[in-house]
Backbone:
């Protein structure tokens, strides 16, 4: 076994897909498949003897499916788990996020064959995700603190808060679910979200958040009117912004920080259209997308919230924002909803 390679356990019931995944991963010189399992029960048995760096997990399997296997592994032998899912069906993508709720750290599209137009891009994303998740040696899970409330924000805004923008990347979906599910159903302002995610999974994310939170979650459309108590996700391959009056804008302008949609574009738009009447939130994720633009919001008088290191899967984006002095508050995932509720209520009372 080559020292230094990323050790992967592939859990997949289809022999054909299993062979393809093993071939694709072993073809990368930095990755080595050290085991295969046909279902969750075999995966659990494998973990008694060996310790992979990453588990690549299918969803639908006999004896023990991916959801149950993920739950049990995270309870007994915490290991970074990447869900490998076909995304043709909305239900499949939605289940992927249920597995992330159970403790998986990422989901990727399952390669379907070399004749597929996006085959190389899907394989590249799969390998990149495996490498990134191998660095998450301990899968961090934030505690659910009953009644936990943040200290009253020391920085008041001079304007009534009218809108909230949130940016997230790796590890973001479970944090978004934690935040949105803790907000009141009559939350009085709209929430705009840019979540970096593999193509094909966004509708599943929206469906899962609709099922597990009290808010109405939509994939944004150009010129859509953003409504209080509603959540809008930037669609695949479109930057999302907003004009005064809560009118959403979508564009396919050039990539920003190598990304489209980018958090940077959303925060730039909020800074221009709302200044201190907006709140910016930057969550877990690799890289620096949105950090400089969050500083621009901060400098314009907006309250800004950044996720802390302890509750982040990857602290790249929030860490960059903290280093730039862009954070009014640095909070754990379970305290952000309370802070947003308090900020909005205080601005209404002011």
Residues:
């Amino acid at each position: 076994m080559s020292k230094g390679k990323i050790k992967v356990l592939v859990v997949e019931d289809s022999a054909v897909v299993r062979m393809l995944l093993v071939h694709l991963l072993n073809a990368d010189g930095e990755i080595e498949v050290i085991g295969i399992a046909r279902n969750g029960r075999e995966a659990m048995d494998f973990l008694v003897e060996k310790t992979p760096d990453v588990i690549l997990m299918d969803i639908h399997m006999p004896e023990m499916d991916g959801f149950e296997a993920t739950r049990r592994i995270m309870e007994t032998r915490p290991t970074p788990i990447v869900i490998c899912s076909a995304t043709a069906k909305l239900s499949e993508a939605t289940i992927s996020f249920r597995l992330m709720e159970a403790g998986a750290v990422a989901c990727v599209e399952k390669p379907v064959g070399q004749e597929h137009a996006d085959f190389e891009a899907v394989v590249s994303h799969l390998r990149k995700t495996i490498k990134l998740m191998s660095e998450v040696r301990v899968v961090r899970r934030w505690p659910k603190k009953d009644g936990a409330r943040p200290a009253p924000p020391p920085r008041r805004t001079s304007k009534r808060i009218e809108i909230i923008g949130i940016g997230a990347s790796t590890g973001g979906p479970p944090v978004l679910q934690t935040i949105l599910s803790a907000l009141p159903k009559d939350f009085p302002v709209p929430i705009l979200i840019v979540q970096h995610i593999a193509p094909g999974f966004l509708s599943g994310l929206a469906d899962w958040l609709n099922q597990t939170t009290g808010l109405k979650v939509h994939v944004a459309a150009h010129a859509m009117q953003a409504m209080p108590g509603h959540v809008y996700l930037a669609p695949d391959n479109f930057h999302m912004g907003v004009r005064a009056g809560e009118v959403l804008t979508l564009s396919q302008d050039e990539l920003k920080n190598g990304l489209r949609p980018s958090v940077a574009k959303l925060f730039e738009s909020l800074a221009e259209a709302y200044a201190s009447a907006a709140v910016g939130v930057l969550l877990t994720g690799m890289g620096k997308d949105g950090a400089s633009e969050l500083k621009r919001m901060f400098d314009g008088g907006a309250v800004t919230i950044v996720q802390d290191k302890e509750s982040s899967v990857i602290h790249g984006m929030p860490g960059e924002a903290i280093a730039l002095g862009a954070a009014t508050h640095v909070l754990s995932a379970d305290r952000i909803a309370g802070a947003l509720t308090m900020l909005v209520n205080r601005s209404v009372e002011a």
